[in-house]
Amino acid sequence: MKWMDKILWIDGLAALFVGSVLISFHSFIGEIYSMPEKVVIFLASANLLYGLYSSSLAMSRKVSLRKIQGLVFGNCLWALICLLLVYRFMDSASWIGIVFILSEALFVTLLAGVEWRCRFDLSEAQATV
């Protein structure tokens, strides 16, 4: 297995981890971020759903190019949503909340870039495992 094959695992497990932490401690994190609990639950839910999708691709023997492209699109969309949340809560959120959400936007943008560059290898490599 080449290093790029692990990117799907990194993508999925990172999202599942962040989503699990956010949902488990949503009240506490809402206070730390100075954001409504609904926003933290939204962040958690999106991460968990995305993590399930990405992890299912990592576990698949065959992954179509279209599914990899969907994953890249999902990462780009999530980065945009994170930036919109930062804009929306810039005046009221704590710096910890802003930094966390900006970090998530950066992380998923980097993942999208790697997955896009490796999209053909990822869709072929999974079929030969």
Key attributes of the depicted protein:
single chain, elongated, mainly alpha, 129 residues, 83% helix
The helix/strand series, from N terminus to C terminus, equals HHHHHH
Shape: elongated
SS-based structural class?
A: mainly alpha
Report, as a whole number of angstroms, the end-to-end distance.
8 Å
Give the biggest beta sheet. Answer: none
Rg from alpha-carbon coordinates: 15 Å
Roughly how much helix do the residues carry, as a percent range? over 70%
Oligomer, anyone? single chain
| Helical segment count | 6
Question: Your description of this structure?
Answer:
This protein is mostly helical and 129 residues long. The chain has helices at 7-24, 26-33, 37-59, 65-89, 95-117, 119-128. Helix 2 (26-33) packs across helix 3, helix 4 packs antiparallel against helix 5 and helix 4 crosses helix 6. The longest helix has 25 residues, at 65-89. The N and C termini lie close together (8 Å).
